[in-house]
Amino acid sequence: MDSGPIQYALLCVAAIPFIYYAIALFSGWRFFGRTSTTPRKQPAFTPPVSILKPVRGLDPDAYENFASFCRQDYPEYEIVFCVGDRSDPVLPIIEKVISDFPGSHIRVLFGSGRDATNDKVAKLARLAKEAKYEVLVINDSDVRAEPEYLRTIVAPLADPNVGAVTCFYVSTDEKTLVQALQTIGMYSDFYPGIVVAWQLDGVKFALGPTIATSRARLAEFGGYEMIENRPADDLLVGRLIAEHGHEVKLLPYSIHTVADFQSLRDLFLKRLRWIVVMRHMRPWGHFGLIFTWGLPWSLVGAALAPSPAAAVAFLAAYLSVRIAMTVQVAAWGLKQRVPWQGLVLIPVWDAMAFVIWLASFTRSTIRWRDRDYYIRDGELIPVGVTGAGS
Q: Right CATH number for 38-262 from 3.40.50.720, 3.40.630.10, 3.40.30.10, 3.90.550.10?
């Protein structure tokens, strides 16, 4: 049967994600290729550093996570925790770390002293104010660092044009299929998108597990106090520093994170929360994702293909390119092992991510730390507050 113009038009649209995939492969080749053949040197720039850790509750493997920052190959640094109060179950773990590493300079602050919707950012406002040193390294409580971490992440700040440094993060000790699915989603979807952003528009964001900057750079936009009622504080810090004319440096380096979810529902809700926030912060970019979803468009292309061979070719091209993107980022770029079982999960992740994207258009609230919030004018408004739904 002859194909009509509508059918050909849909086939052309179905091929658009392959343009995005080609850009992602080119961007990954450029980004990771810059350093793949360059021998690593011991960084000479090692100013005193304050590591800031806002903490709430007990993460899996918390002791090992915290202890890894006491084993840094770095001349002078302190670790400053901020905990809500003395009843927090994480406090005994911090106290054990202090006891086991008496040579480390560790302080614990209690409470942010602020009334803010985003408790983590309120804690960071106090931590930044009370840090001993000018250079700050901010990271989440669920991350684990190798001994060279501080030297690596701080070194780019020697360039006065660099206002912040961030890096990738990879999961460690995966124990469940859900955790493996999350990891393959990072390698195949999130990180390719990041290197595309780097290629097309530069780095105007930061990734929460690691941000290295200075008090001076934070002060230029008003510090964490200015964003203590907003979501996506990591993205905002990078954006605000970039808007003040400084480079945000993304390193081809990864820190480890320990998964804090155990079920598919937890993963779904975490991803849904993130993408709903992105819909409010970058509405046109969020809508534009429609042209990056290769799986549903490849299924459309296969259904409309003029022959069975063409349909198989469409699907085979989709899977081949997606595997190539994943292997490029994970194995070549970040030097991580990617088992073939993980590659099988790529279409599963793509299907789930597409469903979450569709669901994000139906959500007026996000679920965060066991409470529902509206996002109004970029700020978090607890559900139930008078006027929040207006």
A: 3.90.550.10
